[in-house]
Every structure is written in structure tokens, then in C-alpha cells.
Design a protein that fits this description.
Helix 4 packs antiparallel against helix 5 (260-289) and helix 8 runs antiparallel to helix 10. The two termini are 48 Å apart. The protein is built from 10 helices and 12 strands. A hairpin with a 5-residue loop joins strand 1 and strand 2 (77-80). It is of the alpha+beta class. The strands form 3 sheets. A 5-stranded antiparallel beta sheet has the order 2-1-5-4-3.
Length: 449
């Protein structure tokens, strides 16, 4: 920052100095040109007065760098300070102007002098014309006269610009470098830096707040991980213990022949429970990691719901629960396999936690916000204070009832993670003893948005 600031100030100062020098030189040129012309006109007046008084004898006593000419009214050259100049000068512009208006001026190339010459002419009382020719005042001649002073002034300007740039850069950056970024308000700074200090302080507060939030989130995640590990260990240990116990009794011959079939059935049921639990854990792990997930496509949600009802038809019939699908045929953009898992778990819970002869209604609706699926049952309901926790892993509202209906306790967690994957919002409306309605609001399809 210091180097960049130094360069900007230095080149700005140099540019300002060059601009000032240019203005001074231009003004000097205008002033010098005006003074040069005035001096020449004064000389013309002097020569006119001398010729009016002394006639041709005046030229015997004159000398100088300027060219002097005396021209008769008919253009004849009566005198010229350049040798061997004669002929007719009536066609010269300055002579014609002088004869007509009393004075004339012309800057042109002179073949006699072989250079560009400024001619000033004035008419005398007898009609003749006195003319002076001199080298014009040019910008180049001004620069040649001012070359040495300009070089010295420019060198001084560059040196002063360097010193000024270094001083300003140091004075600007030193207070900034002295700011303690951890506690910026503890050091006095000039007023222009106060907004920066306040901003740094605000950012520090925001960073500290974010760090605290990250720490809290980390602690929460760590607690959830420990809880999940403990729950998984417990859920895995329970069926394994049952399987091991039944198998040990059968190995030791402590089971009567007529009970072997029942014990084998117990082992099979616990093994199936274990397989289901491991499968749900794998599904959650994939949803968590977002790895190996199926590609999203446009899915007919009505067909997914129909397939789910077909899968749960036997379980619903056993409990006397009626399942029906109503509403619109809607489409969503998502992974069909994950959508099937979400609908299945919602409907499975609606059947398991329903009352005898109850109903489960799946309603599909097309809305401006996108497709909407509502799974409503007439079951036991969920207390208000428990509704926020039902999507936690292994969380069960009624643990005693859960043992009767089975399940892994991961179904609604799969629904939650599937909803996150599909950017879908979940709404739960439940009344204890009357039933529960879970609504999934999907985002609109790109062609419908």
C-alpha cells in the first residue's frame, strides 16, 4: 500500500509541476511575443522620426541587427540595410498595408534573408514607407532562452515531489500500520481513519460472534455424534444380544424340539431388524455425505405414492387401516429412490402409530410455490413440545409404543435429510388423540418457476 500510495502522489506531483511549467512557458511566450512586437514598433517610430528629420542622412548613423528599409510611394527601394537590395517592393503585403492604412505587418519567408522574417512598416508624411524586418519571436527561441532555468526548476520539482510523496505516504500509512487489528479502538487515529477503525471493530465482533457460533455448533454436532454413536451401539446391541441368547440356548440343547421353530423365528426377526437398522444407517450416511446419490430427474410423484401404498397394503390391512391417494398428478425434480424412501417412511409411521380402523390420506396438490404432498393420519398424535424433535435420529415420542410397532427410529431422519437434498420444507400439524399431518412443500420445476 505504501509503495502504491508513494507512486500515485509522486506522479501526481510531477504532473502538477509539468502543468505549472507548461502554463508558465505559455504565458511567457505570449508576454515575450507581445514585448518583442512593441519593441519593434518603438524602433519603427524612432526610425520614422529620424527620417522625417534628417532624410536619407539618418541611415548613415544607424546600426543594429534589424533590417531597415526605406521605400518610396511607388515601391522603389530608396534604402535597405542589406546590400544590393533594390527593385520594386510595392507588392509586399506590409508595404501595401502601410500605404493604405498608415501601418502594416507581415510575417513571411524572405528570399533575400533566406529566413522567416517579421516585417513592420509605417508610412511617412511624404508618402514613403519605413520598414523594419526582424526574426520573429518563436516558442523554440523561448525554450532555448529558458532551457537552463527549466532544467534546474524541473530537477528541483522532481526532488521536491519525491520528498513530498515519501512524507505523505509515511504520514498516511504510519497510523494505519499502528492500528491494533485485535483492539483497533484502543489507539487514537486521525478522524479520516475513524470509519476504518469502526469497520474493523465491527468485523472483529462479527468474527468473534461467528467463532462462538461455530464452537456452539461444533459442540452440538459433537454431542449429536456421541448420542448417535451411543444410540447406534444400543440399537445394534439389542438384536445381537437376542440373537446370541437364542442361538446359545439352541446350541446347548436347552430348547425343547417343539420350541425350536419359535426360537428360530425370534432369531430371524431380530436379524431382519438388524438388517433394516444397518440399511437405514447407510441411507443416512449417504444423505449426510451427499456421495453416491442418484441423479435428479423429473419424477411423477403420484406414481411414487401409488407404489408406496402398494408396499404398505399388507401392513395396513393387518391393522385395519385404510389408505387412499387424492389430489393432482404432480411432478417434482429429484431422485426417485430418495423420494420413495421419504414417502414410505411417512406412510409407514402413519400406519404404525394409527388407531385401529383408522385412515391414512395422501394428498397431492399443485401450488404456485410448487408440488405439495400431505400425509395425514388419524393416529395418536404428537405433543406440541415433542414436534421439534421427531426428526432427530432414534428419537421416539412414545418409547413403550415404539417397541410394539417396531422400527429403527431413523425413518423421519431420512425424511428430513431427503427434504434438505430436495430443498423441500417440512410442516407438522398434530393434535394428541386426533392425528398428525406432515406436509412436504417442493420447489417449483424450472419450467414452471
Amino acid at each position: 500500500m505504501k509503495g502504491k500510495l508513494f507512486k500515485q502522489i509522486f506522479w501526481s506531483a510531477v504532473a502538477f509541476c509539468v502543468l505549472c511549467f507548461s502554463i508558465i512557458v505559455a504565458a511567457s511566450y505570449v508576454y515575450g511575443s507581445s514585448q518583442h512586437r512593441e519593441r519593434l514598433w518603438e524602433e519603427v517610430s524612432y526610425v520614422v522620426a529620424g527620417v522625417e528629420t534628417a532624410g536619407a542622412d539618418f541611415f548613415d548613423h544607424t546600426s543594429g541587427e534589424e533590417r531597415l528599409s526605406w521605400i518610396a510611394a511607388d515601391g522603389t527601394v530608396l534604402y535597405d540595410s542589406l546590400p544590393a537590395v533594390g527593385g520594386d517592393h510595392l507588392d509586399r503585403p506590409e508595404v501595401q498595408q502601410a500605404l493604405t492604412a498608415g501601418q502594416g505587418e507581415s510575417t513571411r519567408y524572405s528570399s533575400t534573408a533566406e529566413a522567416t522574417v517579421l516585417f513592420l512598416a509605417q508610412r511617412l508624411s511624404d508618402g514613403s514607407v519605413v520598414r523594419i524586418g526582424a526574426e520573429p519571436y518563436t516558442f523554440f527561441s523561448l525554450l532555448m532562452n529558458l532551457f537552463a532555468p527549466l532544467v534546474v526548476a524541473l530537477a528541483l520539482a522532481v526532488g521536491l515531489s519525491l520528498l513530498l510523496a515519501r512524507y505523505v505516504a509515511n504520514s498516511v500509512t504510519r497510523p494505519i500500520n499502528a492500528i491494533d487489528l485485535s483492539f483497533p479502538e484502543e489507539r487514537d487515529v486521525y478522524p479520516e481513519l475513524q470509519p476504518l477503525v469502526r469497520r474493523i471493530n465491527a468485523q472483529n465482533r462479527q468474527i468473534r460472534h461467528q467463532i462462538e457460533e461455530l464452537k456452539s455448533e461444533h459442540e452440538r454436532q459433537d454431542a449429536m455424534r456421541r448420542e448417535f454413536t451411543a444410540n447406534v451401539s444400543h440399537e445394534l446391541k439389542t438384536p445381537l444380544t437376542s440373537i446370541s441368547g437364542y442361538a446359545e440356548l439352541m446350541r446347548e440343547g436347552a430348547v425343547r424340539p417343539e420350541d425350536v421353530s419359535r426360537f428360530s423365528g425370534k432369531i430371524y426377526d431380530e436379524a431382519q431388524r438388524l438388517i433394516t437398522l444397518v440399511g437405514d444407517i447407510i441411507k443416512l450416511s449417504r444423505l449426510d455425505s451427499q456421495l453416491e446419490l442418484p441423479e435428479k430427474t423429473t419424477v411423477e410423484l403420484w406414481e411414487v405414492c401409488e407404489a408406496t401404498l402398494s408396499q404398505l397394503e399388507h401392513a395396513a390391512r393387518k391393522r385395519g387401516v385404510t389408505m387412499r391417494l387424492t389430489g393432482d398428478r404432480v411432478r417434482v425434480f429429484g431422485a426417485e429412490y430418495i423420494l420413495s424412501e421419504m414417502v414410505y417412511n411417512l406412510c409407514d409411521n402413519a400406519v404404525k402409530y394409527n388407531r385401529e380402523e383408522g385412515t391414512v390420506t395422501l394428498t397431492l396438490t399443485n401450488t404456485p410455490e410448487g408440488a405439495r404432498l400431505t400425509v395425514a393420519d388419524t393416529g395418536i398424535g404428537i405433543p406440541v413440545q415433542e414436534q421439534e424433535r421427531i426428526f432427530e435420529r432414534f428419537y421416539r415420542v412414545d418409547k413403550s409404543h415404539s417397541k410394539d410397532v417396531g422400527g429403527t427410529g431413523l425413518g423421519l431422519s431420512i425424511v428430513k435429510h431427503g427434504a434438505l437434498y430436495h430443498q423441500t420444507t417440512i410442516t407438522v400439524n398434530s393434535t394428541v388423540g386426533e392425528g398428525t399431518a406432515v406436509t412436504l412443500q417442493f420447489p417449483p420445476l424450472a419450467s414452471e418457476a
